[in-house]
Amino acid sequence: MRCRVLVVGAGPAGGDLARQLAARGEDVVLVERLPDLRRAAFSSAALPLDALDRFGLPASVVAHRWSSWELLGPGEDRRSWQGGVPQGVVLDFGALREWLVGEAQRWGARVWLGHRALACHQEADGLHTVLRRGDGGRLEVHSDWVIDATGQERSLLGDPPAGGSGAESLVSGVGLEWLVQVPSACWQRWSDRLAFCLGSDWVAQGYGWVFPMQAPRLKLGVCRLLDPSRDQPPLGGVLERLIERLLAPAERQAMAVLDRHGGLIRSSIRRREPHRRGRLVGLGDAVSTANLLGGEGIRHALMSSRVLAPLLLEELRHPPRGSCVDRYPLELGRALGWRWSLSGRLARRTWLGLHGAAADQRLGALLTSLEQEGASALSDLLFGYRFERYGIRALPYLLGLR
Ligand SMILES: Cc1cc2nc3c(=O)[nH]c(=O)nc-3n(C[C@H](O)[C@H](O)[C@H](O)COP(=O)(O)OP(=O)(O)OC[C@H]3O[C@@H](n4cnc5c(N)ncnc54)[C@H](O)[C@@H]3O)c2cc1C
After folding, report:
1. 13 CB near ligand 1 (under 6 Å)
2. Which pLDDT score, from 0 to 100, does residue 396 have?
3. Sheet harboring 46-48: ordered strands across?
4. 50 in ligand 1 pocket by Cβ < 6 Å?
5. Distance 11 CA to ligand 1 centre (A)
6. Which domain covers residue 327, as residue numbers?
């Protein structure tokens, strides 16, 4: 089988790139190992409102809107910031993937679900990628370009090299989330807000959350950074204790767990890893676009496709002497911006250091200093990474100097 561009992985990054290339008439094949894109919808998928417009996402992929923030902890502290107007959305992650892939298909991309890419190698006439179909059969695809959009697994590109130039170690976070159905009075209580549980007695070296989905559903989850130097208790027990603290006994009894999912987020901090090997190019989480501070990667994955698409199109249409795709790492770094980069560095320090009373006290002091802010300022801080706004007050804390 031949095509010009083979995109492997139908997450936000791969789905979006396939739809953009197909919309401009390119010959694209998109392969995804999941047979059903609604399954394994592992992402909590909270986004700020402007991301919907920026990436042209329709209402059909939105599960619910939120207008306030609530931060619980450290300990029994509770702080909320009321926005009044919508600040963001929680997406239905399965619906997002399905919509992107449907769009790619409508523009003419060939989409093969239930196909896993096993290996990819360069030969004289292009790239040869070996796929395994759901029925166990093998298939070989010959293409001019292959895009590794397989998320943090980096199935084709592999992890960054451990030593030498371009060496970058990956920082890993792990998350576990339940999609639950609760009594409607309980759902109402959480329905207008993104709620986070912070402090080491909630989740040491991480945080917990409650996000509203379509009535009367909620997403309840916990995540933390992996720290090989510490004994970290299993996340299942941490999530069960969080639910016990947040929901009344009658609410827990009436609660039905509809889905349990989770996954890893792995990113390098400096993002200096190679973004390609010849004509095999990484996209989204496969080149560390996920930000570990808020465990957030959907809009950054979409951004990576917005940066790569025009470069690849230029390359496909008017093959230049030097490769346009050479500009990709630099342009992606610029698009993510210096704030992204700073927040990646802060993530490691903030989360790994969050264990014990002293860390909780520092966190409590920071949250107190944010109390006079409005909900939109908090969104700017947590989604816009605008730490400098808090200047000498927050930066030293965030940088671990206090
Ligand atoms: C628990 C958790 C909660 C999160 N919450 C949020 C959040 O609230 N907001 C946010 O913005 N981000 C969140 N993220 C991060 C976000 O989901 C990712 O950053 C984003 O999905 C990355 O998109 P991607 O397309 O690069 O990769 P992915 O979404 O991981 O997509 C990769 C795709 O490739 C497929 N694949 C893998 N290997 C192969 C192979 N060999 N052959 C074929 N297909 C393959 C996979 O099945 C998958 O569909 C969360 C992540 C986790 C784990």
Report:
1. yes
2. 47
3. 46-48, 88-91, 62-66
4. no
5. 6
6. 2-48+92-168+270-337
What is the CA(51)–ligand 1 centre distance, in A? 17
Residue 236 lies in a domain: no
Block mean pLDDT (10 aa), the chain, length 402: 97 98 98 96 95 96 97 95 92 98 98 98 93 96 97 96 70 96 98 96 96 98 95 96 98 98 93 94 97 93 98 88 87 93 83 91 89 85 78 53 44
> Up-side HSE of residue 174: CA atoms within 13 Å toward CB?
11
pTM: 0.95
Ligand 1 pocket mutation, candidates 43, 218, 280, criterion most atoms within 8 A of CB? 43
Question: The CATH number of the domain where 144 resides is what?
Answer: 3.50.50.60
**Residue located nearest, by CA, to atom 7 of ligand 1:** 45
Residue 238 beta carbon below 6 angstroms from any ligand 1 atom: no
Per the CB < 8 A criterion, the answer to whether 305 and 282 are in contact is no
Residue 114 lies in a domain: yes
In a domain, 393, yes or no: no
State how far the Cα of 209 lies from the Cα of 197, in Å rounded to an integer: 6
* Count of structural domains, the chain: 1
Cβ pair 325, 311 in contact under 8 A: yes
Q: Whose CA is nearest to atom 4 of ligand 1?
A: 43
The answer to whether position 302 is within a domain reads yes
